[in-house]
Amino acid sequence: MSEMKYDPSMFEKLDESEKNDEAIAMESKTFLQDTWRRFCSNKLAILGLVVLVIMILLAVFVPVFSQYTYDGQDLANTNALPSAAHLLGTDKLGRDILVRICSGMRVTLAIGFTSAAINLCIGIVYGGCAGYFGGRVDMTMMRIVDIIDSVPSLLYTIMILMVFGNSVFSMMLAISLTSWITMARQVRAQVMSLKEMEFAMAAKVIGCSDLRILLKHLVVNALGPIIVCLTMMIPSAIFTESSLSFIGIGIQPPACSLGSLANEARQLINTQPLQVVWPVITIALITLSLNFIGDGVGEALEAKR
């Protein structure tokens, strides 16, 4: 057999425009990267995130670096209007309103985020067990939930505050006592639908323990709805704390929260209406920001389902 000779005329160079015909048009992204990109495309969600970050920074740094304290009184400068010395003015005892609002934000945000974290833990464990084991276990656990949910949450709150006092701890406990029910029902529904899928059955066949299947496979795949539910629970906890403090059964002096600040300023609403405006606006901004973030997270995760 004769050897084939190289003939340069048989080959020709490609144009530059044809060299990348098989190139990947878009760089591959992870689930989190794609979710973040979708979240960033929501302008209201980004606005809510920016406002929330600013609020947190103010709550952390203003009381630290300010020359005033949240309980420092200046009786010679009471009910002062906003000025260079006091950007938001002073209250009836001459205390700087800006520092008190930032200190109140600390308490309110701490209660909101901590209560939501407690609800998340309880809801995942309780709802996950009910949805995974099913049968009589599920029926018994959910009937207990129905009994707890049948009593108005305000009664639980008043009872806990009467027993443990009007402190930050008792407020967190009161809000967390019934708020986890929504998370538990959400987790239960997701686990019940996911445990019948092939990946869960395969994990069972190869000998994975029930705990590993529940936490490593089912809960992880249900994180989307769980995160959305969590983002909605934070503003609900903040609003609950503010409402209770506003009507006088929440945080008590010398501690302060946004609700208690609004309650104190309410007494001067006819003569000093501006003092009521600041805590109310702060509560509204925080609540709206968290709601915008929750809607953005929900849309970003829903697009991937």
Could you characterize what this model shows?
The chain is mostly helical. Helix content is 68%, strand content 0%. The chain is built from 11 helices and no strands. It has helices spanning 31-40, 43-65, 97-133, 135-150, 153-164, 168-194, 198-205, 210-221, 223-246, 258-266, 274-302. Helix 5 (153-164) packs across helix 6 (168-194), helix 6 crosses helix 8 and helix 9 (223-246) runs parallel beside helix 10. The longest helix is centred in the middle third of the chain and has 37 residues, at 97-133. The termini are far apart. The relative contact order is 0.14.
Helix-strand makeup class: mainly alpha
Radius of gyration: 28 Å
Query: Distance between the terminal alpha carbons, to the nearest Å?
Result: 61 Å
What fraction strand? under 5%
Helical stretch tally = 11
Low-confidence parts lasting 5 or more residues at pLDDT below 50? none
Task: Give me the strand/helix succession.
Answer: HHHHHHHHHHH
The tally of strands reads 0
Could you describe the largest sheet, including whether it forms a barrel? none
Helix content range of the residues, please?
55-70%
Overall average pLDDT? 82
Shape call: flat
Topology readout:
Layout: H1 31-40, H2 43-65, H3 97-133, H4 135-150, H5 153-164, H6 168-194, H7 198-205, H8 210-221, H9 223-246, H10 258-266, H11 274-302
In short:
The protein is 68% helix and 0% strand. By secondary structure, it is mainly α. The longest helix is centred in the middle third of the chain and has 37 residues.
